[in-house]
Structures are given as C-alpha cells and as structure tokens.
Amino acid sequence: MLYMIGLGLGDAKDITVKGLEVLRRCSRVYLEAYTSVLTVGKEVLGQDLGLSSTSQEEFYGRKLILADREEVEQEANNILKDADISDVAFLVVGDPFGATTHSDLILRATKLGIPYRVIHNASIMNAVGCCGLQLYRFGETVSVVFWTDTWRPESFFDKVKKNRQNGMHTLCLLDIKVKEQSLENLLKGRKIYEPPRYMSVNQAAQQLLEIVQNQRIRGEEPAVTEETLCVGLARVGAEDQKIAAGTLQQMCTVDLGGPLHSLIITGGSLHPLEMEMLSLFSIPESSSESQSIDGL
C-alpha cells in the first residue's frame, strides 16, 4: 500500500493519530521536501516523539528519506518500488493534495496496480481563514515566484484581477527555493546547490507593486493599487504565528519574521465580520485603508 500522509502545518504534533499509527508500521518513509517545508527541524521532531535528537535520520521512529523535486517528478518509480508487497509512506507538509505532483504519484501507483490510501490534514489552503476572511469568498489561488534578471512573469496577475472583479480574495502562495542549482552549475552538471530561499511578504509586495507600475506605463487600469487592502501571514499554525492587515504598500515594510509567508489580496468590499476580524491585525501606521480598519 502507498500511504499519502498529510503532516499538517509543520509542527511535529500536527500529524493525525491515524497518520502516526500508519507511519510507524511502514517499511519506508519519504518526506516530500520542495512544495513546502517543515517549520521545525528534524531534531525537534525527534524530541517530540522521545527519539534521540542526535540522529538526523530518525523521523517519527522511522528512517527519513528526503524526496526532492527530481526524485518525485523524475524517479517516482523508486518511491513506488515494492509498494505492492509492503507499506510505503509519503509524507507531505500540509495536505497531500496541496500540489498536483502528488496526484501524479497516485496515478503512477494506480497504473502499477499499487493500492493507495490518503490521510488528510490541514493546509494553508484552509488554515488561512485564521485571519478572519471567509474561506468561501476566496477565488483562484496564485503562486508568486522569485523574479530573476531575465524572467519576471506577470501572467498570474490576470487571475488576481478576475478574483477582484468577482469580489473574491486571492491567496498568494510565495515561492520557496530548496535544492536549486545555479545556471552555471546546472549546465556543467555539477551537483552544487544554492542556499535555501523563502519569499517574504515584503518581497512579494514589492514585485506586485512593480507589476502595478508596469500596467500603468502600458496604459492599463490596474486591478490592484498601493492602497489595496492585503493580509500578510507568517508561520500559520505555529506558536509564533503572525498576521498583519494593511495596504499593499505597507506590506513592503511590515516585519513578519522568518518563513513561511503567505499573502492575501482582498476582494474589495468586505463583510462587516471580516472587517472586524482584520481590525485585530491592523498595522498601526496610518494609511487610508488601515485607518478604516482601525476605526472599527
């Protein structure tokens, strides 16, 4: 059996009882390590379960096999090997269906005649409701990637515009770069990887504002402006979770600390209950929209 097990929002204890019971009886345990990351290190995970904190290979009482992008997308058969005669666990931070890659793994297993079972958990897709915005008022989710000197995509902004036109909020999932190679090392075939990078709300807001300026230069009416109300979230579900509500301009400078970050672009008019909830997280600096929140 192939078990796809959601780990929740990143803390060791976020796994479900059902997921933990299954994991402990599996012969191999993989941790998907590129669509999201754990908010605690492997040593902490070991301590939470009474394991030795000196062992980097212990995870929930089983040896941890990190599965990076290359392993999951190009060498999935290695993960599925012998899963028809033994139990294999594939761990995903959040919920297993938070990324299409995991659907692909299930389809591969099915074609090989390997049964599978999914054990769900919380993910940013539903936990984002902690800020007070109502989940059923969210439109299509978008991803904001790190720009480079030669690649600065803006196409996702069309989805933000469509959401705003429909009065829907937009959840922006911010880029993470784990086990990435520089172009030079990639071309030369050198297995040398860049340090991990995690996009902050500040960086995302700066890129969004540049897109707004580019649209104005092209004579377009941007669906988002510097004064658009946004919500920044960091480490959702952790004890040091942070939420800040304010303008897109304010999001460029608000300090939410370490990763992982997410950004919400609100859909314009808000329900009174949403406004009241956002007032709990209002950035104290003065601006036209943050003042309206503070005034509630």
UniProtKB/TrEMBL annotation:
Function per UniProt: S-adenosyl-L-methionine-dependent methyltransferase that catalyzes four methylations of the modified target histidine residue in translation elongation factor 2 (EF-2), to form an intermediate called diphthine methyl ester. The four successive methylation reactions represent the second step of diphthamide biosynthesis.
Cited InterPro entries: 4pyrrol_Mease (IPR000878), 4pyrrol_Methylase_sf (IPR035996), 4pyrrole_Mease_sub1 (IPR014777), 4pyrrole_Mease_sub2 (IPR014776), Dphthn_synthase (IPR004551)
Identification of the protein by name: diphthine methyl ester synthase
Every Tetrapyrrole methylase domain range: 1-250
Organism this protein belongs to: Physeter macrocephalus (Sperm whale)
Family under the similarity heading: Belongs to the diphthine synthase family.
GO cellular component: cytosol
Catalytic activity reported: 2-[(3S)-amino-3-carboxypropyl]-L-histidyl-[translation elongation factor 2] + 4 S-adenosyl-L-methionine = diphthine methyl ester-[translation elongation factor 2] + 4 S-adenosyl-L-homocysteine + 3 H(+)
